[in-house]
Amino acid sequence: xxxxxxxxxxxxxxxxxxxxxxxxxxxxxxxxxxxxxxxxxxxxxxxxxxxxxxxxxxxxxxxxxxxxxxxxxxxxxxxxxxxxxxxxxxxxxxxxxxxxxxxxxxxxxxxxxx
Length: 114
Ligand SMILES: [Zn+2]
Ligand SMILES: [Zn+2]
Hints:
Elements: E1 2-9, E2 14-20, E3 32-37, E4 42-47, E5 64-65, E6 73-75, E7 80-84, E8 87-90, E9 93-94, E10 104-113
Antiparallel strand pairs: 1-2, 1-10, 3-4, 3-5, 6-9, 7-8
C-alpha cells in the first residue's frame, strides 16, 4: 500500500528512502510522509497520525510535513510525485533542510511495501 520516494538537492544532500503512507496492517495508525527536520537538517518520514509529530531519529523540535506546510515550497511543479489520500508531493522545488535553499526535489520511486 505504501510506497517510497527519494529526495535530492543540488547541494548534494539526498535521502533515497522516504516512505509514504502505511502498510496493510498499519494504515489506520500510520501515515508516513516526508518532513523538514530543522534540528537534524535532514528530510525524514514522519507519522502524520502521531501527535505531536516527532523526528524518528530523535531530534528536538517538530518536523514540518512538506505536504502540509506551503511555506516549504517556492515553486509548484506540474507533476505529482505522490498523492496519498489527498496529501500531495509535486515535482516542484522544496526547501532543503541542509542548505536552506529552495532546491530540493522529490522523485518517484517504483518501490512499494505492504
Ligand atoms: Zn531529525
Ligand atoms: Zn540543499
